[in-house]
From TrEMBL:
Pfam families, per the entry: DUF2062
Transmembrane segment boundaries: 58-78, 120-145
Stored InterPro entries: DUF2062
DUF2062 domain segment(s): 5-151
Protein name: DUF2062 domain-containing protein
Keyword Transmembrane listed: yes
Keywords from the named record: Membrane, Transmembrane, Transmembrane helix
Amino acid sequence: MKITRNIKYNLIRLFRLKSGPHQVASGVTIGFIPSWLPTFGLGPILSVGMARLVKANTISALVGGVMGTFIWPLLFFLNYQVGSLLLDRNTKVNELDEVEYMDAIEQTYTGIVSSHSSGFIFLTGAMCNIVISSMFIYIMVYVIFKTNRVRILNKIR
């Protein structure tokens, strides 16, 4: 019960922000970017810092950063799959259960220079996923805030 109340409270805070739809959508988009990369749990902090750099809404950036924290195994799996598809290479990761966080970090940072390593495959997929997801998230959040902000806020209350 307390978790539901906390989520509802934070949604109300998000939809009551005085910022315009562009700042909120930019914040959520920028906040989600570190979720695609191994950030050692610092993703939400990096999200807020990046939002301040580009003058986006920091609260919405924190929301975007926290959203990605919960689904990082799926994001890492997608990075491997998209990277192997783009580079036409096989990867060792064929199932979501096979994504190991520490292995992904080690292979990413040690294998950047080699174009045949799984780290290079991971980073290629991550860069492609960041671009595509950023465009999708921005458009989706912008439209929601532009057209349905008041209606959603009334339903949440």
